[in-house]
C-alpha cells in the first residue's frame, strides 16, 4: 500500500542499525516495533501487517501463514539473517510474495564466533574464568584447568557452505586436520583448502571437534542425536552455530553428563531465548552464547542495509540481490 507521499508502507520488527533505517526511511513509509529487547507480540504483528507492502523481520519472528494471511498487500518479506527457517516459504510463494535474506556478509563474523567457541571449549576458558571468581585458583598446578590442544586436532565440519568453508580456513591456519560432510562433495575446495570429505558416520568417529553449519530443514532436524553421540570419541567436542533444531538437546545433555563426549559450545538452541534454569546451562562442560554468531557492529550494520536495499528493490519492481524466493 502507498501513502500520500507515494511511498509504500513497511513494518520493521525491531530497531535496526542506522544504515538500514536511513535507507528504508528514504524510500518507504516506515513503522517500527521499538522495543529492542522484546520481540513484537504476534497479536501486534498481525495488526501491523494489515496495510504493509513490505515486512522487514528478524529470525526471532515466526512468519507463518497466519501473518501472511493478515497482510493482503504484502509484496516482500526481508529477513535480517541468512537463515530463513522462520518463514513459511510455501505460504509466501502461494501468494506471490518475494523473500530476501542476507547471505555472505555475515560469513566471516559467524565463523569467527564458531572458532571462538571451539577455543573456549577446548581450553576451558569460561570454566577457568569462573574458577578465579569462585576463589578456586589456589596455586599454579600442572593439570589445573588443563584442556586439549587445538593444534594437530581434527575438525569435522557438517555442511560445507559459506560458513563451513570459512571455518575450514580458520582451522587450517591453526594447524588442524579438516574433514567435512556435506550434501555434495567439492573437490576443488578439497584441493584448494587441503581438507578431506568423509561419510557422515566416519566424520563423527574420527573428529576431535565437530562443528555444524547446515540450515534448519526437515532433513537436518535432530541430525545429531543419541546414535550420533554414541559414534563420537569420548574426547569429542560439539560446536553448534547453525540452529538449535539440528541437535537433540536431551541427547546432548545425556552425552555431556555421562562423558560420552567431552564438551559442547552452543550459540543456538531449540527454544530461544533458552530459559536461564535449563539443565544444560548448569553443566561445566557447556559453553552457551545467546545467538550472537553475526553480532559485530560492522556485520549487523551491513546486514541491516542489505535487507533494506533488497526490500526497496522488490518494492520498486526490480529483482533482489539476495532472493530466497523471487516471486
Ligand atoms: P550455506 O552457504 O547455504 O551452507 C549450508 C551448507 O549445508 C550447504 O553446503 C548445504 O549443501 C549443506 N546442507 C544442507 N542440507 C544438508 C544436509 N541435509 N546434509 C548435509 N549438508 C547439508 O549457508 P551458510 O551461509 O553457511 O549458513 C549456514 C547456516 O548457519 C544458516 O542456514 C543459519 O541457520 C546458520 N547461521 C547461524 C548464525 C548464528 O548467528 N549463529 C549466523 C549465520 C548463519 P547444498 O549446497 O547442497 O545446499
Ligand atoms: C543467524 O542465525 C542467521 O541466520 O543470520
Secondary structure layout:
Blueprint: E1 8-12, H1 18-27, E2 28-32, H2 42-48, E3 54-57, H3 65-69, E4 76-79, H4 89-94, E5 98-100, H5 107-122, H6 125-133, E6 154-158, H7 162-173, E7 177-181, H8 187-193, E8 196-197, H9 200-206, E9 209-212, H10 226-231, E10 237-240, H11 249-258, E11 263-266, E12 286-288, H12 297-315, E13 323-325
Parallel strand pairs: 1-2, 1-3, 3-4, 4-5, 6-7, 6-9, 7-8, 9-10, 10-11, 11-12
Antiparallel strand pairs: 5-13
The structure holds NADP nicotinamide-adenine-dinucleotide phosphate and glyoxylic acid (GLV).
Key features?
327 residues, alpha/beta, Rossmann fold, 2 domains, 7-stranded parallel sheet, 6-stranded mixed sheet, 12 helices, 16% strand, elongated
Report the span from N to C terminus. 18 Å
**Proportion of residues in extended strands:** 15-25%
Spans of at least 5 consecutive residues with low confidence = none
Structural class: alpha/beta
User: Any idea what the CATH architecture of the largest domain is?
Assistant: 3-Layer(aba) Sandwich
Question: How does this model look, in words?
Answer:
The chain has twelve helices and 13 strands. The model has no long low-confidence stretch (mean pLDDT 97). Helix 5 (107-122) crosses helix 7. It is α/β, with parallel strands linked by helices and 327 residues long. The radius of gyration is 22 Å and the shape is elongated. The chain folds into two domains: 9-105 and 297-315, NAD(P)-binding Rossmann-like Domain (Rossmann fold), CATH 3.40.50; 107-288, NAD(P)-binding Rossmann-like Domain (Rossmann fold). The strands form two sheets. Strands 8-7-6-9-10-11-12 form a seven-stranded parallel β-sheet, sandwiched between helices. Residues 82-83, 103, 106-107, 110, 159-164, 182-184, 213-217, 219-220, 241-243, 267-268, 291, 293-294 line the site of NADP nicotinamide-adenine-dinucleotide phosphate (NAP). The site of NADP nicotinamide-adenine-dinucleotide phosphate has 30 residues, from helix 5 and helix 7.
Amino acid at each position: 500500500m502507498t501513502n500520500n507521499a507515494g511511498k509504500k508502507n513497511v513494518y520493521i520488527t525491531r530497531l535496526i542499525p542506522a544504515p538500514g533505517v536511513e535507507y528504508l526511511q528514504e524510500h518507504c513509509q516506515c513503522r517500527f516495533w521499538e522495543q529492542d529487547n522484546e520481540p513484537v507480540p504476534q497479536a501486534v504483528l498481525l495488526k501491523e501487517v494489515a496495510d504493509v507492502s513490505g515486512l522487514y523481520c528478524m529470525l526471532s519472528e515466526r512468519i507463518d501463514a497466519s501473518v501472511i494471511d493478515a497482510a493482503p498487500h504484502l509484496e516482500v518479506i526481508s529477513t535480517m539473517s541468512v537463515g530463513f527457517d522462520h518463514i513459511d516459504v510455501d505460504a509466501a510463494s502461494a501468494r506471490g510474495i518475494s523473500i530476501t535474506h542476507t547471505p555472505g556478509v555475515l560469513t566471516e563474523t559467524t565463523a569467527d564466533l564458531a572458532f571462538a567457541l571451539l577455543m573456549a571449549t577446548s581450553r576451558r576458558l569460561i570454566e577457568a574464568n569462573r574458577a578465579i571468581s569462585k576463589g578456586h585458583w589456589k596455586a599454579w598446578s600442572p593439570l589445573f584447568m588443563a584442556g586439549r590442544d587445538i593444534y594437530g586436532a581434527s575438525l569435522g565440519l557438517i555442511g560445507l557452505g559459506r560458513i563451513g568453508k570459512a571455518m575450514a580456513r580458520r582451522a587450517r591456519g591453526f594447524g588442524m586436520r579438516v574433514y567435512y560432510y556435506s550434501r555434495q562433495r567439492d573437490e576443488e575446495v578439497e584441493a584448494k583448502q587441503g581438507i578431506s570429505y568423509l561419510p557422515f558416520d566416519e566424520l563423527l568417529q574420527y573428529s576431535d571437534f565437530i562443528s555444524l553449519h547446515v540450515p534448519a530443514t526437515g532433513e537436518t532436524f535432530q541430525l545429531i542425536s543419541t546414535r550420533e553421540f554414541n559414534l563420537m570419541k569420548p574426547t569429542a567436542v560439539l560446536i553448534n552455530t547453525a540452529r538449535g533444531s539440528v541437535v537433540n538437546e536431551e541427547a546432548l545433555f545425556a552425552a555431556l553428563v555421562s562423558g560420552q563426549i567431552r564438551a559442547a559450545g552452543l550459540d543456538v538452541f531449540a527454544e530461544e531465548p533458552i530459559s536461564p534454569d535449563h539443565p544444560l546451562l548448569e553443566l561445566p562442560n557447556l559453553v552457551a552464547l545467546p545467538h550472537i554468531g553475526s553480532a559485530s557492529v560492522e556485520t549487523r550494520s551491513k546486514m541491516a542495509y542489505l535487507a533494506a536495499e533488497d526490500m526497496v528493490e522488490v518494492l520498486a519492481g526490480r529483482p533482489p540481490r539476495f532472493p530466497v524466493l523471487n516471486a
